[in-house]
Amino acid sequence: MNIHSDSMFLGARVTGDTLNPKVAYEFVGCIDQITLNGVSLPLTLKPSNNLDDLMLKRLVNVEFECADNLPIPGICGSHPCHNSGTCDEISKHKYKCSCPERYSGHQCEVDEAPCSSSPCLNEGVCIVKDHTFVCECPANLTGVRCDYGVYCIPNPCQNGGRCEEGSRSPICKCRHFSGEICQDDIDECTRNPCQNQGTCLNF
Predict the structure, then answer these.
(1) 103 backbone dihedrals φ, ψ, rounded to 5°
(2) What is the pLDDT of residues 84-103, one digit of tens each?
(3) Which CATH number characterizes residue 90's domain?
């Protein structure tokens, strides 16, 4: 999952922008019926008017067919090298990872300078601890990267709305209200829910 946006790529690691995508760790095979936390993920580019719906936003190097005889991957086929390391097949059951600068370990899993990419947001202070980073966050901010609390503390959602941190603004989850910050009352009586000559009162 790409932690810098609200997008998640399946089958490969994709970086770069839409016009110049960079694809690594490409999966060779067929993908069908994908579920995440019990929710089926869409496999076609079909727009939705509901902001809560999961949408397939773009495809990179995808073919809508599956070969009958897929090649059998070697020991490097599972992409065992992390952090953009290159896998070299030494024998049928042995491989060696060539790690980029800053990374080491058998699978390039050790980050020698985890703070060099400035992972802490919103003026958080990065501290190296056991080859990973820990962010010391300013007041009112929490989260692994000091990314929670930017929009939701204090809660901007009115009328009991629940606030969720969006990428650029707060996202208010409303009950019986609508609007960007749950400011508009929904008149449930407009749907005439009462039967048998009952009188509807909107609260």
Answers:
(1) -115, 150
(2) 899 999 998 899 999 999 99
(3) 2.10.25.10
pLDDT digits (tens, 9 = 90+) for 3-35: 445 567 777 777 766 666 676 666 666 777 777
The whole-angstrom separation of Cα 121 and Cα 71 is: 43
Query: Furthest-apart CA pair in the chain: how many Å?
Result: 81
Question: 154, exposed or middle or buried, with CB in 10 Å at 0-12, 13-18, 19+?
Answer: exposed
pTM higher than 0.70 for the full model?
no
Among candidate residues 103, 121, 100, 123, the one with its CA nearest the CA of residue 113: 103
Tell me if 165 sits within 8 A of 148, measured CB to CB.
yes
What are the residues facing 178 on neighbouring strands? 184
Instruction: Please give the structure tokens belonging to residue 99.
Output: 């790690």
184, 173 Cβ separation under 8 angstroms: no
Task: Enumerate the β-bridge partners of residue 104.
Answer: 110
Structure-token pair, residue 169: 């603004």
Is residue 41 within 8 A of residue 57, CB to CB? The reply is no
Torsions phi, psi for 202 (to 5 deg):
-90, 125
Domain match, 19 and 62 both:
yes
Residue with tokens 């994908």: 34
Pick the last residue of a domain from 71, 98, 126.
Answer: 71
